[in-house]
Amino acid sequence: MEIASFLNNLEFSDEHVLISPLIDNAFTKEIRIAFKEGQMMKEHKTKFPISVMTIIGSIEFTVEDKVHILNQGDVISLEGGILHELKATEKSVVRLSLHKGDSVARVSAVLKL
Q1: Beta bridge partners of 62
Q2: Which class for 89: exposed (0-12), middle (13-18), buried (19 or more C-beta within 10 A)?
Q3: Global pTM value
Q4: Whether 71 contacts 8, CB under 8 Å
Q5: Alpha carbon distance 95, 31 (integer Å)
Q6: Distance separating alpha carbons of residues 69 and 27, to the nearest angstrom
Q7: pLDDT at 113 over 70
Q8: Banded pLDDT at 10 (limits 50, 70, 90)
Q9: Is residue 53 within 8 Å of residue 75, measured between CB atoms?
Q10: How far is Cα 113 from Cα 109, in angstroms, rounded to an integer?
Q11: CA-based diameter of the chain, in Å?
C-alpha cells in the first residue's frame, strides 16, 4: 500500500515547473506537477496513454492546436502519440497518471524542450 498527497509538502519554483513522483506501483505511476502562472510544458507526446487532472487552479491543455481549459477537478485522457501542451493560467497543481511502461525521466525531459 502507498499513500500520497497532491497537496502536502507542495512547492513551486519561479524558474520552472516542478515534477514530483508520488506513487509507482504495479498498476500506475502518479505524478504531481506544480506550475506557477504562465509556466508551461511545451508540446510533446508519449507513446502511452495518459490522464491529466487539475487539482488546483486552471490550465490550458492544447491538443493538436485546440485549447481546452481544465479547471479544478477537470480530467482529460489521451491515447499515446498525440501532441499536447500545458500552460498554467494561474498557480496550479496537476495530477499526471502514467502507464507503467512510461517514465518520470521522460516527463522531466519535456521541461528541457
Answers
A1: 67, 85
A2: middle
A3: 0.94
A4: no
A5: 6
A6: 28
A7: no
A8: very high
A9: yes
A10: 7
A11: 40
Residue 110 above 90 pLDDT? no
Q: Helices in 1-113 by DSSP H: which ranges?
A: 104-110
> Is the Cβ–Cβ distance between 85 and 44 less than 8 Å?
yes
Q: Which residues partner with 95 through β-bridges?
A: 32, 53
Give the start-to-end residue ranges of the domains of the chain. Answer: 18-110
Alpha carbon distance 104, 90 (integer Å): 24
**How do residues 33-44 score in pLDDT, each as one tens digit?**
999 999 999 999
Q: Which residues pair with 35 in a beta bridge?
A: 92
Residue 31: how many CA atoms within 13 Å on its side-chain side? Answer: 24
Fold of 18-110: Jelly Rolls (2.60.120)
